[in-house]
TrEMBL record:
One of its GO terms (molecular function) is phosphatidylinositol-3,4,5-trisphosphate 5-phosphatase activity. It comes from the Eukaryota. PANTHER family: INOSITOL 5-PHOSPHATASE, INOSITOL POLYPHOSPHATE 5-PHOSPHATASE K. It comes from Edolisoma coerulescens. Belongs to the inositol 1,4,5-trisphosphate 5-phosphatase type II family. This is INP5K phosphatase. The lineage of its organism: Eukaryota, Metazoa, Chordata, Craniata, Vertebrata. Coiled coil: none annotated. Signal peptide: none annotated. One of its GO terms (biological process) is negative regulation of phosphatidylinositol 3-kinase/protein kinase B signal transduction.
Length: 212
């Protein structure tokens, strides 16, 4: 029935499904692995299914500006697709799938390059120098955060500096921002600097690891 619907319905044609390497997951007697023994004797069916499609894509163009092809920014690989026969509370057996998602970067070159200057410690104010590619559009709400190398989310910063409010020097090639000594962690360790763009709602530059 699903395969017939995919031939008729345009929106279903783009969906993919893994191979059905498990037996039909419907219709079972409750709390058993026995198919319907009621008077209806309904036929087993692969009713519970997992379908997916990737909708994010971009156009890849040549140097001459001619359209070449569409490239997916997210690739999805199905690792496994299984049923769970031990569950018996319903006449359906649940199915699950695990996927690997690979997200390709929009650019191969970071929009902002960051460097901590001098020796970093909690004994004195510290300096950050950064430069951006010409096409990068900054905002007054952009900030540079100090993160442990093990950070997992943009909100995991130890401290941060506003790129405009805390700027102390600027020229055509780079800008310099300071962080107060009172904000630098006393315990030290290995850290990173990350530039957060308010316009893009994303980290657009990460420094090499350094010691505090």
């Amino acid at each position: 029935q699903l395969n017939m619907a995919k031939k008729k319905e345009a929106f279903l044609k783009e969906f993919k499904e893994g191979p059905l390497q498990f037996k039909p997951t419907y219709k079972f007697d409750l709390y058993s692995e026995v198919y319907d023994t009621s008077e209806k004797r309904r036929k087993p069916a692969w009713t519970d299914r997992i379908l997916w499609k990737v909708k994010n894509h971009c156009e890849v163009t040549s140097k001459d500006g001619e359209f070449l092809e569409e490239e997916h920014l997210i690739s999805v690989t199905l690792n496994n697709y299984v049923s769970h026969m031990t569950y018996g509370i319903s006449d359906h057996k649940p199915v699950s799938g695990t996927f690997k998602l690979e997200m390709k970067p929009h650019t191969s070159v970071p929009l902002v390059m960051l460097n901590p200057e001098g020796e970093w410690s909690a004994e004195h104010d510290v300096l950050i120098r950064y430069s951006a590619v010409p096409e990068f559009s900054s905002s007054a709400w952009d900030w540079i955060g100090l993160f442990k190398v093990t950070f997992r989310h943009v909100n995991d910063y130890v401290t941060y500096a506003w790129v405009e409010d805390d700027e102390i020097s600027s020229n055509k090639d780079s800008k310099q921002v300071y962080m107060s000594a009172s904000e630098i962690p006393n315990m030290g360790g290995e850290f990173l600097l990350c530039y957060y763009s308010n316009n893009l709602q994303s980290i657009v530059g990460i420094s090499d690891p350094f010691q505090v």
